[in-house]
Every structure is written in structure tokens, then in C-alpha cells.
């Protein structure tokens, strides 16, 4: 009684095996077509990247000149990936290269930049790409290491400009940078001898003036120091 069903099953399997070679040829043709389309798209993406890389390198290099890296250069290296297997990001292996000082060769950013240089280069990149980036919050630490005066004010101005478009958190010890923030938080470490804790408090009005004056003048705050602090806050509102 089961033989008719078995016969039908065997016929179906035989037909499948008979057409397997034809299906394999079809799959191989589809694969070749997909590979050709991928190659065309990957090469088109590489061409676009090459143009964008040069524009980014020029713009970041220009920004570096005002961030205590005079003569420094930024470049973008585009090379074939080690294995040219298809991927969602194409064939390119991308690396940021930097020379922080004139006369030095370009080397990978991750290997040659100090913490402060890395922060400032990152700041330059964020400013240049501000119109395209989607990251809602940026955090900068040690961005003011090894700088001061006019360079510090430039850094503060760039951070303030970024703050117009997204949330920017910056840890700083320089009054030139702190004065340019839209908001000012002071961080203190408190120790009772047995326990240490950290407090963070927002500053407004006179408290902010007092903190900037302390950053400017140290432990002794004079009327001139306070006046300077007020002037810095007033100037920041004009940026």
C-alpha cells in the first residue's frame, strides 16, 4: 500500500538530481554577475573615497596649523585590503597618517600622536566633518595639554562652535577654554581620611567668575583677576 507514495518520492528526487547541474550553472552565472557588480561598486566607492580623503587631509592639515602643530600634516592612506573578499565597506583599508612636526615623516596616527595631539587632531577632524557626522555627544580630555594663550583660546572657540550642533563635554584646566563653554561644571575631590569621593557642581554668574579667577590667578584672587575673568566670559558670548 505504501509503494505508490514511495514511487512518487523517488520520481521527485530523480527529477531534482537530473536538473541539479543546470541549477548549478545558473547559480554560478548569478555569482559571476554579482561579483562583477560588486567590483564596479567597490571601484566607484574607492574613487569617491580618494577625492574625499584628499579634501579631508587638506582641511584637517589647515586646522592643525592653529592648534600648536605648525608645519604638521594629516593624510589618509587608502590601500587594498589584505584579502580582497567582498565586504560591506568595499576593498579599501583606510588609515589616518600624521606628522605633528615639520620634517617628520607621516606615520599612523595611533602610533605617533601624544594624548594632547590626538585630542587636538580629533577636534580638527570633528570641526571639519561637523556637517556630516551623526555622533550626538563628543568628549574631549587633555585637549589643552602643552598649549596655552592664543592656541588655547582657538581650541575653546572650536569646541564652542561644535557645541552649537551637538553636546560637547571637555575636561580642561585652562581658563581660556573653560570661559568659552556654554555651561561650566567644577569637579572637586573630597576626602574624609577614610573615604574619597568626587563632586560635580554647575557654576553660574559670580560662582563662574570666581572659578575662572581661581584658574587664572591661583590661590590669591585680586580685583584685577576677577575683572579679567568677567572680560573673558563677556568675550565668549560674542563668539
Q: What is the topological layout?
A:
Elements: H1 3-18, H2 20-64, E1 73-80, E2 92-99, E3 107-108, H3 109-112, H4 115-128, E4 137-141, H5 149-163, E5 167-171, H6 175-178, E6 184-191, E7 196-203, H7 205-217, H8 223-236
Parallel strand pairs: 4-5
Antiparallel strand pairs: 1-2, 2-3, 6-7
Summarize the entry for a quick read.
With 239 residues, the chain is an alpha+beta fold. It has helices at residues 3-18, 20-64, 109-112, 115-128, 149-163, 175-178, 205-217, 223-236, and strands at residues 73-80, 92-99, 107-108, 137-141, 167-171, 184-191, 196-203.
Descriptive account of the structure:
With 239 residues, the protein is an alpha+beta fold. The chain has 8 helices and 7 strands; from the N terminus they run H-H-E-E-E-H-H-E-H-E-H-E-E-H-H. The chain has a 3-stranded antiparallel β-sheet with strand order 1-2-3. Strands 4-5 form a two-stranded parallel sheet. Strand 2 and strand 3 form a beta hairpin. Helix 2 (20-64) crosses helix 4, helix 4 crosses helix 5 and helix 7 crosses helix 8 (223-236). The longest helix is centred in the N-terminal third of the chain and has 45 residues, at 20-64. The chain is elongated and about 105 Å long. The N and C termini lie far apart (92 Å). The mean pLDDT is 87.
Amino acid at each position: 500500500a505504501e509503494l505508490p507514495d514511495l514511487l512518487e518520492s523517488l520520481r521527485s528526487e530523480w527529477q531534482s538530481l537530473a536538473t541539479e547541474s543546470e541549477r548549478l550553472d545558473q547559480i554560478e552565472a548569478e555569482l559571476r554577475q554579482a561579483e562583477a557588480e560588486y567590483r564596479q561598486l567597490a571601484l566607484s566607492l574607492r574613487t569617491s573615497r580618494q577625492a574625499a580623503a584628499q579634501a579631508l587631509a587638506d582641511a584637517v592639515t589647515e586646522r592643525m596649523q592653529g592648534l600648536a602643530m605648525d608645519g604638521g600634516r594629516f593624510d589618509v592612506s587608502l590601500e587594498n585590503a589584505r584579502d580582497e573578499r567582498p565586504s560591506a565597506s568595499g576593498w579599501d583599508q583606510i588609515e589616518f597618517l600624521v606628522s605633528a612636526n615639520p620634517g617628520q615623516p607621516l606615520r599612523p596616527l595611533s602610533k605617533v600622536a601624544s594624548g594632547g595631539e590626538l585630542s587636538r587632531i580629533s577636534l580638527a577632524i570633528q570641526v571639519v566633518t561637523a556637517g556630516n557626522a551623526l555622533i550626538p555627544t563628543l568628549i574631549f580630555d587633555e585637549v589643552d595639554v602643552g598649549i596655552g594663550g592664543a592656541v588655547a583660546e582657538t581650541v575653546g572657540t572650536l569646541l564652542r562652535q561644535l557645541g552649537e550642533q551637538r553636546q560637547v563635554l571637555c575636561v580642561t584646566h585652562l581658563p581660556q577654554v573653560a570661559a568659552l563653554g556654554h555651561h561650566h561644571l567644577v569637579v572637586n575631590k573630597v576626602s574624609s581620611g577614610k573615604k574619597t569621593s568626587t563632586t560635580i557642581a554647575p557654576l553660574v554668574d559670580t560662582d563662574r567668575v570666581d572659578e575662572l579667577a581661581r584658574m587664572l590667578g591661583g590661590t590669591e584672587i585680586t580685583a584685577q583677576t576677577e575683572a579679567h575673568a568677567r572680560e573673558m566670559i563677556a568675550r565668549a558670548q560674542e563668539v
